[in-house]
């Protein structure tokens, strides 16, 4: 325990001698400690040798005092390092001290030229262990001085020197050997500290890149990768080597110019440059063919100049941090789509409110106006026929208002998912006859022929009977409404596989190609209905679309201006196994050119066309 306390105390003393500028820098701290320990060792040896020198040689001469003072230069370099914190200045002072001592010994103490050479070698060793660039100049200066000094020396053999000056040799040689040993020991400790710091930096870098998810690349000025820092590339499935041109070849061709420009900007002195690049992270093979398509992820490349440490070409090195922004871009796209959908929904709600207000106001105005006329004696008609006409208008407006309210309620139930269908087995042929009989009076009043044609193989279906009735009535009502006098409306029922196709075809006004895409939207009315002045709310086909969607069916509409309209609804024979999601049915539209199809074409070809579309 006492030895541990002493080591801790010695360590704290050394830490107190360190300058504050190296605090928190393990490698620099190790260099400063090694420098201080070696010089303190030699200074201590010199101080301990002084009493022994006095004991063996008596009072020192002037030359001895000068050498003793020069021997304190290593201690002075420790003080300079502790105060200034500049290792280069301290090393220069220490090397200069050894050179000064070698020169002084050669000049003041004849016969000790071997020690001058030893001191020169110490200076050379110390200069060689200096990692700074200036050490090269120092080494050259020392070498030149050594050559000039030893050119005319008369060196004694080591045995003669030890015989004649044994005590002095030991007193001068022991500190030198200890100093060299301390230098080597310090260099080993510095190298170990460097290795530990690099390992710790690599570990921290791997943890950082793993946590942040970035890929760090060390580039040259051409954009080629010299090194991949961290292990982040495995996160993005970049398992192949990225060294050299490999990474640049993975960048999308369209993004390479912007990436190279960012590299060039950083090399030219720009602090930070960014570029959006798409990098190939894999390939996708098409199931139906052997074609292989590259898969790209979007990255943000953030580049900056690498810190120079004196290496050749380091001034042009670039550090690139790649951050995967693919998920962010997808989220932005989804957010933009949601925002656009919200705007469309808001616009649709405003339009819906305006249409509802208009549709409700028209029959209410008629009801209120004609009822007030009948209730006011001054303006009430006296003729019974006129009174019956007013009452009929009020009744028709009330029924129209009730129809609007019912359609709105059905639409709200369908859109909110609250409408449920009551599945039962029934004969579709019988239901179609009932609907045609109900619409026959309207067809006779309009002068339109209402025809029906059913396939003999059509049996019962499993569906919601009320919903199917409403689908048939709405389709027949729309067809009769837009067919001119003398025209024909035909209802066709035909089984196709596991489905039944309900087709309502007319030779009426038709629908313009620009209006086909909006068919099925609530309150939308085609231009043909507005030009003809036909009554309606624009909710009939919307309700049909919702009911067909609840059954898991689909709708196809083929129409054109003055070319008639054919609406085909495909329903499963058993809607219990249809897999319906409850959403509105998909509507496929076809723009028709020319005259409406004949009856034979409608009966014979249309179901196949509908089957192909659906």
Structural class: alpha+beta
According to DSSP, the number of beta strands is 13
Report the radius of gyration as a whole number of Å.
Answer: 50 Å
As laid out across the biggest beta sheet, the strand order is: 7-9-10-12-11-13
Q: How far apart are the termini?
A: 89 Å
Tally of DSSP helical segments: 20
Shape by Cα distribution: rod-shaped
Summary?
The chain is of the alpha+beta class and 614 residues long. The chain has 20 helices and 13 strands. The chain is rod-shaped and about 155 Å long.
Which tags fit this structure?
single chain, 614 residues, alpha+beta, six-stranded mixed beta sheet, 13 strands, rod-shaped, disordered C terminus
Describe the structure.
The model is unreliable at 1-7, 153-164, 309-314, 529-534 and 598-614 (pLDDT under 50). It is built from 20 helices and 13 strands. With 614 residues, it is α+β, with helices and mostly antiparallel strands. Helices cover 57% and strands 16% of the residues. Helix 6 packs antiparallel against helix 7 and helix 8 packs across helix 9.
């Amino acid at each position: 325990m006492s030895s541990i306390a002493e080591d801790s105390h010695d360590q704290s003393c050394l830490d107190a001698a360190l300058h504050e500028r190296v605090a928190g820098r393990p490698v620099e701290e190790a260099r400063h400690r090694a420098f201080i320990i070696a010089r303190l060792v030699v200074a201590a040896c010199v101080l301990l040798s002084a009493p022994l020198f006095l004991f063996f040689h008596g009072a020192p001469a002037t030359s001895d005092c000068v050498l003793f003072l020069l021997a304190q230069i290593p201690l002075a370099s420790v003080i300079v390092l502790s105060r200034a914190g500049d290792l280069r200045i301290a090393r220069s002072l220490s090397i200069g001290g050894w050179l000064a001592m070698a020169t002084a010994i050669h000049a003041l103490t004849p016969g000790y030229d071997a020690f001058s050479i030893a001191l020169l070698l110490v200076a050379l060793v110390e200069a060689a262990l200096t990692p700074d660039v200036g050490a090269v100049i120092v080494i050259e200066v020392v070498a030149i001085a050594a050559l000039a000094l030893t050119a005319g020396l008369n060196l004694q053999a080591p045995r003669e020197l030890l015989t004649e000056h044994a005590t002095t040799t030991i007193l001068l040689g022991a500190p030198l050997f200890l100093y060299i040993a301390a230098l080597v020991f310090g260099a080993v400790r510095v190298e170990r500290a460097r290795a530990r710091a690099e390992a710790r930096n690599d570990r921290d870098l791997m943890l950082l890149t793993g946590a942040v998810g970035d890929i760090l690349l060390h580039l040259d000025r051409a954009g080629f990768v010299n090194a991949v820092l961290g292990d982040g590339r495995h996160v993005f499935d970049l398992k192949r080597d990225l060294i050299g041109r490999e990474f640049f070849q993975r960048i999308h061709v369209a993004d390479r110019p912007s990436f190279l420009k960012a590299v060039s900007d950083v090399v030219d002195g720009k602090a930070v440059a960014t570029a959006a690049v798409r990098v190939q992270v894999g390939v996708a093979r098409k199931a139906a063919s052997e074609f292989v398509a590259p898969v790209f992820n979007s990255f943000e490349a953030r580049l900056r100049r690498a810190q120079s440490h004196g290496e050749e070409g380091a001034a042009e090195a670039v550090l690139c941090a790649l951050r995967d922004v693919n998920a962010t871009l997808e989220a932005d796209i989804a957010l933009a789509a949601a925002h656009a959908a919200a705007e469309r929904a808001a616009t649709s709600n405003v339009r819906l409110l305006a249409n509802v207000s208009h549709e409700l106001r028209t029959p209410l105005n008629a009801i209120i106006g004609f009822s007030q006329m009948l209730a006011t004696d001054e303006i009430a008609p006296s003729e019974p026929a006129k009174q019956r006409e007013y009452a009929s208008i009020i009744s028709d407006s009330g029924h129209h208002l009730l129809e609007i309210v019912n359609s709105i309620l059905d639409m709200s139930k369908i859109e909110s998912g609250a409408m449920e269908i009551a599945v039962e087995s029934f004969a579709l042929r019988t239901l179609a006859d009932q609907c045609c009989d109900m619409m026959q009076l309207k067809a006779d009043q309009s002068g339109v022929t209402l025809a029906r044609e059913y396939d003999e193989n059509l049996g019962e279906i499993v569906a919601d009977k009320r919903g199917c009735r409403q689908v048939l009535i709405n389709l027949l009502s729309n067809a009769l409404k837009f067919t001119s006098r003398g025209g024909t409306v035909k209802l066709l029922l035909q089984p196709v596989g596991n489905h039944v196709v309900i087709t309502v075809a007319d030779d009426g006004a038709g629908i313009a190609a620009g209006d086909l895409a909006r068919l099925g939207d609530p309150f939308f009315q085609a231009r043909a209905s507005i030009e003809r002045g036909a009554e309606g709310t624009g909710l009939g086909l919307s309700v049909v679309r919702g009911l067909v969607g609840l059954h898991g069916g689909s709708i196809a509409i083929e129409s054109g201006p003055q070319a008639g309209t054919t609406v085909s609804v495909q329903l499963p024979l058993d809607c219990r196994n249809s897999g319906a999601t409850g959403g509105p049915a998909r509507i496929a539209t076809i723009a028709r050119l020319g005259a409406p199809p004949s009856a034979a074409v409608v009966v014979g070809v249309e179901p196949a066309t509908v089957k192909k579309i659906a």
